[in-house]
Amino acid sequence: MKPDKNNSIGRFRIIFFGLCLLGIYIVSSALYTMLTKEEYWTTVGQMFVSKNIKIPAKRGNIYDCKGRLMAGSLPEYRLYMDYVVIDKDSIARCKAQAWRDSVFDATVDTIADGLARIFPDKNRSYEENAKWFKNRLLEGKRRRSHAWRIYPRNATYIQYKECKELPLFRETAYKGGFYVKEITQRKHPYGSLASRTLGSLRVDSNAAKNGLELSYDTILRGKDGVSHSVKMRNKRVQIVDVEAEDGHDLISTIDVDIQDMAEKALVAKLKEPMVNGILGMAIVMEVPTGEVKAIVNMHRGKDGNYYEMKNSAVSDLMEPGSTFKTASMMLALDDGHATLNTTVDCCGGIYPMHGRHMKDHNWHRGGYGVLTFSQILENSSNIGVSRIIDEAYRDNPQRYVDGLRRLGIGIPLDLPFVGKGEPRIPQPNSKIRYWSKSDLPWMSIGYVTQQPVISTLAFYNGIANGGKIVRPKFIKAEMKDGQIIREFPTEVLVEQMCKPSTLKDIQFCLNNVVSIGLGRKAGNGGKLFQVSGKTGTAQVASGTKGYHSGTTRYMVSFCGYFPSEAPKYSCIVCIVKDGLPASGGGQCGPVFSQISQFIMAQTVERDASELADSLSVFTPTNKVARSEADDNLAKVPDVRGMGAKDAVYVLKKRGIRVTIQGVGTVKSQSIAPGTAVTKGQKIKLVLD
Asked: How many other C-beta atoms can be found within 10 angstroms of the C-beta atom of residue 490?
């Protein structure tokens, strides 16, 4: 029987139209899904695959020179409660919500008691604290909050783990609603010690804000990683795409012990009624390496207490005052305009200088009269210094300024701090600033010029370092996983400041400043070790109002090094205060003395009596002393270590007039040994 063609064609048509309708339905459904349900399906997709998630790198730590942690990153936790269950399955959501609410209601008292125990409050009793937590928890439930902050402060890791043992909180975040946000906080185990030097991070972003944290941020911060999460079988699995690289650690030059001692000694002096300082600064530096062992910046707050508010020792430009006289006198020696035999008539303490009156601090008592080169520095005579410099350089002041730069004055230190100050040395030939004839004499005694305190210390450190100026250093090494991977070398800024003979003469003068001059309080009476340095007192200008507006403000200072015979450390102490008395030797000297004695006691384990000046000798017998001293009658002999009787004998034999202070053997003499004897010369001996 033949098949019916018409029936076959009919069936094919039905199948064809059916397929067409099916295709139209599929395409329509796809278009509907794409155009009207795009947001829904995007949300569904995001449930299974998340976008890139940053993996924060752990910031490196900063240690002191002995490996003690000074700045480190520790995790802290913000505690939250989600009172509303979220689930696409309405049945599952209602079931989970009912369970969460019932358990919360049944255990809220237990949870509150536990939180009161974990987070005690000194202003509330335990019962009051538990009640506060219960009200806090109930308030969150009343508001049906998704992110209710349980405790206003951050919790430590231990506190967080204790919270996870409480009812409901021990469950997963989906089931119980309790969850945390981990944040990293920068901690300083030693509080405010050197805080302005170490620096800080911004609270909102943890970005470096200032100090060493900012200067070495690229080393400390590391590199963040990247990950994404995928939902698999109702669980999210985090997949790491790029591993985070933790930051490296830094070993600083700071010594916590010296830093703490320097801060305590300085603050104690600032608080004295006769001082009542506005600002105090102290820096301790290791002579050969330039490593900064302590740097203190204490500003007086409105409450009268002192705080580290600004790294003033590095950033603030100030007129150095009398500590600058050392550079002027050093230059005069090096250029051959003066010797240790040079004398200057300082008159009655007032001397006319290009239309202005130069005064010594004792002008109202009649001044100093004639002073030797060393005595000018010992007594910090303004007239003595300015007369030497003015007579030598007034016809060519540019030669004086260029000479200062040769000594290392005015060179930029390029320290690793944002906002650092660099010296400002006026130029006689500059078209920007008018140079008057009075600028040279006043510049010679520490005015006109401005520089940060640390620049003054770098200069004195060079004198202690055999004429080699090094850059102050704050970081010793970079470390990864406990292993040093890079060391920061000492950088030399000036290889040789001056002639060796100049250096020897200026070192002699600086030693005399402490042994018999205005800087005596910076030493220790020579009983432990010798100290060298220079006092400084300068009026501080009040902006455009100058130096004489209202109460006069002073910056007093002492800068020096120890022990004199083999310098290991240099140190500067500065105090800014209002009104008199203002004395660098009397107010900063004692702080310097405390710091130096503390350091030497820490670094030397011998008996204190063994730290005496190695240049001293036992008192020789009269016969030996006199025979040795009679060898050369044309030069000033070295009488240190002799008894008073022998010293006076050999000096008077050369026609030198002698004044004596103290009893015992000669500790120091005001005129350097080997200096040519002049008629009527006076010498002062200090005995101990």
From this structure: 13
The distance between the two most distant Cα atoms of the chain, rounded to a whole number of Å, is 162
Residues 650 and 630 sit within 8 Å (Cβ to Cβ)? yes
Q: How far apart are CA 381 and CA 347, in angstroms?
A: 11
DSSP state of 303: T
Q: Which letter, b or e, does each residue of 44-83 get, where b requires 16 or more Cβ atoms within 10 Å of its Cβ?
A: eeeeeeeeeeebbbbbbbbbbbeeeebbbbeebbbbbbbb
Q: Identify the CA nearest to 146 among candidates 84, 78, 77.
A: 84
- Note the pLDDT of residue 605: 43
- Helices 589-603 and 256-270 cross at an angle (nearest 10°) of 160
- What are the residues facing 19 on neighbouring strands? none
Three-state DSSP state, 231: strand
CB 539 within 8 Å of CB 552:
yes
What are the structure tokens assigned to 191, written together?
């509080």
Q: Tell me how far apart the alpha carbons of residues 374 and 186 are, in angstroms, rounded to a whole number.
A: 51
Q: Where are the alpha helices (DSSP H) in 124-235?
A: 126-142, 157-163, 173-176, 195-198, 211-215, 217-220
At the second CATH level, the architecture of 622-687 is 2-Layer Sandwich (3.30)
Q: What angle do CA 400, 403, 406 make, to 5 degrees?
A: 160
The residues that bridge with 494 in the sheet, in sequence order, are 469
Instruction: Say if CB 530 and CB 515 are below 8 A apart.
Output: yes
Q: Are residues 211 and 199 in contact, defined by beta-carbon separation less than 8 angstroms?
A: yes
Burial 590-617, CB ≥16 within 10 A → b, else e: bbbbbbbbbbbeeeeeeeeeebbbeebe
Query: What gap in Å lies between CA 401 and CA 389, rounded to an integer?
Result: 11
Instruction: Please tell me the pTM assigned to this model.
Output: 0.76
Chain-centroid distance, C-alpha 401: 30
Distance CA 459, CA 465 (A): 10
| Domain 53-252 homologous superfamily, CATH | Penicillin-binding protein 2a (Domain 2) (3.90.1310.10)
Tokens 């100049």 found at: 502
Domain spans in the chain, listed from the N-terminal domain onward: 8-48, 53-252, 256-611, 622-687
pLDDT along the chain (688 residues), means of 10: 62 76 76 60 52 82 95 91 88 92 96 96 94 96 94 92 95 92 88 93 85 96 83 63 91 97 97 97 98 98 95 96 98 98 96 95 94 97 98 97 97 94 92 89 96 98 98 97 95 97 98 96 90 95 56 94 96 97 96 96 52 33 37 76 76 81 78 80 83
Q: Which residue has the tokens 């591993």?
A: 243
Q: Is 12 exposed, middle or buried (0-12, 13-18, 19+ CB in 10 A)?
A: exposed
